[in-house]
Protein: Cytochrome c domain-containing protein
Organism: Leptospirillum ferriphilum YSK
Amino acid sequence: MTNQFKPMNNVVAILVTIAFAIVFFILFMLIPEPENKKASSPAGQSSGNARAFPSGLTGEVLFNRACSQCHTLPPLTHRSPEDWRILVLKMNRNMQQTGKNYLTPEEVQPVVDYILSRQKPA
Ligand code: HEC
């Protein structure tokens, strides 16, 4: 029997190892991005097109645009500043959860200020 098993020599072994490493690396790069990566936004359960308003809008414009997305603009009855703030924050959460355009944290106060300036007297 001349057909004896011979161990691979070291150079060949290293080349084979590198070749496999390259093949695995290429396969790894081909793995598609997981779909749920997009769901990391606060509007995770929405249709995914929720977004902020263009920057630089006044409280009045933001109020008109943001607060008419689901119902007619609410009557500005008299409430305490804190009550209005809580309500706007609650509505803003509605907007995020339903995939509407929503207010950024910096836009909440101008909207509250606008409402307070226009609310009916006590
Ligand atoms: C994503 C949809 C949505 C948007 C946008 C929205 N609202 Fe509402 N709003 C609702 C729903 C639903 C209710 C009724 C249920 C409730 O009271 O939470 C409601 C009720 C209200 C009420 C009556 C409830 C109460 O407590 O007196 C007021 C006032 C109001 N909204 C103001 C606003 C203002 C101000 C904005 C803008 C900052 C706004 N809404 C934007 C969904 C929305």
In short: Residues 41-47 have pLDDT under 50 and may be disordered. DSSP finds four helices and no strands in the chain.
